[in-house]
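User: Please run a holo structure prediction.
Assistant: Happy to. Please share the sequence and the ligand.
User: Here you go; the ligand is adenosine-5'-triphosphate.
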Amino acid sequence: MKWLRKRKQTDPGETTPVLAANEQKKKKDAQDEAEYIEEDGQSAAWPARAVPVVTDELLLDVRGVERTFQTGSEKVHVLKGIDMVVRPGQLVMLKGRSGSGKTTLLNMLGGLDLPTKGEIFFRGDSLSSWSDNKRTVTRRNDIGFIFQAFALMPLLSAYENVELSLRMANIPRHLWKARVQHCLELVGLGKRMKHRPYEMSGGEQQRVAIAKAIAHKPLLLLADEPTAELDSQMGAQVMGVFRQILHTENIAICMTTHDPTILEVADHVYEMVDGKFIS
Ligand SMILES: Nc1ncnc2c1ncn2[C@@H]1O[C@H](COP(=O)(O)OP(=O)(O)OP(=O)(O)O)[C@@H](O)[C@H]1O
């Protein structure tokens, strides 16, 4: 009641609490953007990384990783000593039968889970030594994820889905439009930006998921069977997009697959059998 009375007394020219909050948000957005405007008034480039990427650095360095799950009284030893590396710009594939441990490993490469034993270094830093917050921020800024089941927001258009990852990564608002358009054009969906997921084919949805996963310019893209739900033609389209983004976006891709035909394009294939790599 007190609030209603106050509203009634408000002068028409005065700002209501909601409008004031909106104004404040607009000011904050403008301030955030201003941080990225150079002195001559031109839009600044994409926010620079604190530590620039060096071509031959190890993005991922996995050493002696094991993962055991406790299910009831039983211990399931899923990963049994994994060693691998991923460098900038590489396409690395994890191949193996269902249940061999590929997804378990991929989750750990993205900091979603931690090893029971061994260590994973991301750009030289051990993921195990990081706080939950640092892992979350790194995931949001430096890593992109693609899952089998496209993981798009069903009520948002392709454009809005891609925009979301820029919002999540705190990319300044004035850079969004050009980047979203660029990413959707890159995956061949420049003319489908307003479509919602249910108005697109499986292959198109997966391509939106790729655009979404790379929009914030991550260093590493982790993809769990990105072609599993697609027919061979659509799978080939997705792999074509991957090949293209390796060159144009300077990103490394680590993906799991069952499909022998797409292994040929990999820079390196790790074959997993029962929680270990065989050479
Ligand atoms: N949280 C968990 N608790 C217990 N067991 C688990 C857990 N996560 C995975 N596993 C077991 O680990 C094994 C490997 O699973 P994972 O999903 O990594 O295999 P995958 O190679 O990715 O299989 P697919 O190709 O079918 O996706 C499976 O036997 C699975 O049941």
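The two ends are 74 Å apart (CA to CA).
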